[in-house]
Each structure stands twice: as C-alpha cells, then as structure tokens.
Amino acid sequence: MPLFRAIFLTVICLWVTGCSKIPQTRPNLVGHLHGLWVRNDSLIWVVGDEGAILHSTDGGQTWQRQVSGTTVPLQLIYGSGPDLWTDGPRGAILHSTNDGQTWKQQRSGTASTLYTLCGTASHLYAVGTAGTILYSSDGGKNWQQQKSGTTNTLFSVCCSGPNAWAVGDKGTVLHSADWGQNWKPQTSGTSESLRVICGNGVHLWAAGYGGIILDSSDGGEHWHQQTSGTNKTLTSFYASGKDLWAVGVGGTALHTADEGEHWELHDTGTGRNLEEVRGSGTHLWVVGYSDTLRHSTDGGRSWQPQNTR
Q1: How many domains, the chain?
Q2: Exposed site from 22, 127, 138, 256, fewest CB < 10 Å?
Q3: pTM of the entire structure?
Q4: How confident is the model over 63-82, as pLDDT tens digits?
Q5: DSSP states of 191-220
Q6: Could you tell me if 74 and 87 are in contact, meaning their C-beta atoms sit under 8 angstroms apart?
Q7: Buried (b) or exposed (e) across 143-169, using 16+ Cβ within 10 A?
Q8: Which domain holds residue 249?
C-alpha cells in the first residue's frame, strides 16, 4: 500500500505540476527572428518578435532566454566590447553591460521604429522610419536626433571614425564626415530600396530590393552596380577581409571572395526569409522568419539548422 501511494503521488505530481527534471535549454519562440550578434565562436545573441532575446554560450547548441522587459518585435542586436544594444518600434532601445543578464531601456526621444544601431560606446548611431537618425556620445544614456534631410525610411547605418553612412528607401544614401553633425546625400544611381550598408570607411557595399548590390571604393562619392545573380531582396551583409556574405528573402545567400567582383549563390536549405548574417572565422549564422536559425562551419558552403525550441 505505501508503495502504491508513492507511485500514485509521483504520477499526480508530474501530471498536475509538471515537475519534470528535464532541463529546458531551448526556449520556445513563436514568430520571427530579426537580429543576430556573434562575439566569437561560442557567444551568440538573437532577437525577435515579442521582445525575445536568446543567448548561447556554446555556438548555438543550447539557448537561454534573457528578460528584455518589452514585448515589441526587436529588430537588431549590436555589440561593442562588453556593451550590447537592441532596438525596435516606438523608439525602443535596450542596453546591457553584462552580456544580457539584465537589460535597461534607454530614452531615445523618438516614436519612430528603429532598425539598426552601429558604432562604439562613445559614438553610437541609430536609424529608422521617417528619416530618423539618432546619435549618442555616452553609450546611449543621452540620444540626440540629427537632421537627415530626408523623410525616407532608413534601414541601415555603418561607421568608421568620424564618417558614417546611412541607406534606405528610394536609393537613399547619406554621408556624414563629422560624427553625424551634418548629413549630405550621395548619388547611388538607383531608386530601389537599399536595406543594408557595410564597409571599412573607404570601400563600401550597399544592397537591397531586387538583389541590387552597389559598391564604392571612394567613400560613397561614386557607386557602381555589381552583378549579384539574384533578383531576391537582400537584407544583410557580413564582411571579413575580402570575403562578403549577403542574405535575403526566400533563403537567399550569396558569397564573394574578391570584394564583390564575383558573387556565388549558396543553398541555405530553407526558403524562409533571412534577416541577418553574422560570423566568426569560418563559422556563420543566419536568422530569419518562422524562428529560422542556421549555422555553417565552412564559410557558407553548407548549412545546418539549429533549434531554439
């Protein structure tokens, strides 16, 4: 009788209270993953819908949910040294100084949706809808809105020293040479929406709608179109030396080993829209719609799914 009672109580415990001892290392996400930050082969963060922030310490094999304190769809996560920032709708900017263990909201002073952050703790930029450009010189404790001269949505910003570039709808390219105090338009030669820009301050690449890829070897004074080999919209770049990777809608992934002279299409094994690509050495990760997370150990030649569930 005592044995029967013990078994009965154990079954009731597991059924009613769910007191399983199986560790839950794969948080269940519902929705899309929008942003990705890779510090090295082990430390990775992803952000997405409903304020989701996930962190991995083993290259994406297991994931732990971090508490963001918001339910807005986070668009991007960016790191500089020990600092991390993420942003999203209604001017949301969150900041962490301890690898995401705690996140604090920063006052952006705007209601615009913010898509991208870039810079360092002493020179930080954020861009978004309605031509919004924000700048902070103190790690985001104080943000100042700058005059962009456009009302077009800006999707991406990159910076090098005092120079910064932003791109967006209708082929918009803006450049500042004085830490964002003044922004001037550059002629991109296209009216297509540009979704991403990256570079080292001299050589720049921009990409966007319809598979367009532009490059400039003089800081954006002159732009030239490269042959991407795809008509799918491109949403993200990752650069390492002369190698660049680009990803976009429909699972599109491109790679070049010669700074864009020749682009090669790679099979990611998914048809879902990809939002961002990041890497460390030969390791690459992409995130996208429907909780998509994929990993490559050979520079993007082959991809394997990783599961956040």
Answers
A1: 1
A2: 22
A3: 0.89
A4: 999 999 999 999 999 999 88
A5: -SPEEEEEESSSSEEEEEGGG-EEEESSTT
A6: yes
A7: beebebebebbbbbbbbeeebbbbbbb
A8: 227-292
